[in-house]
Amino acid sequence: MINIYNDWYLLRDENDENSSDLKAKLSEFNKQYEEVMKIKAVYKRDVALASIMTKMEGEFKISLLNHDEWQRNNPEIGALYRKISFSRSN
User: Fold this and answer.
1) Helices 42-60 and 4-36, packing angle to 10 deg
2) I want to staple 45 with a disulfide (CB 3.0 to 4.6 A). Which of 6, 39, 60, 66 is the partner?
3) How far is the C-alpha of 49 from the C-alpha of 10, rounded, in Å?
4) Where are the domains of the chain?
5) Are 57 and 77 in contact (CB under 8 A)?
6) What is the pLDDT of residues 23-59, one digit of tens each?
7) Which DSSP string do the residues of 58-84 spell out, in sequence order?
8) What pLDDT does 54 receive?
9) Residue 17 binned pLDDT confidence (cut-offs 50, 70, 90)
10) What is the percentage of the chain residues whose pLDDT exceeds 90?
């Protein structure tokens, strides 16, 4: 059991680790996005973008039912997800 008074730094380190893990995952998804945007064929690019979005939905548990609440709690993830979504042709 963690003693908040003596072990507060353990909580901070865990949050820092989660934050850096999130940033690493977002960076990887953004790299995939950048590569996909180089695809000239619109249909192939759209399919690849949809695939990235599906992977993000699974990885980050993106909720389309409670989207507004989810968006408020996950602004960085939501921003990348929207960027990918808006990049599709249709």
Assistant:
1) 170
2) 39
3) 38
4) 7-87
5) no
6) 999 999 999 999 999 999 999 999 999 999 999 999 9
7) HHHT--STTHHHHHHH-HHHHHHHHHH
8) 95
9) low
10) 62
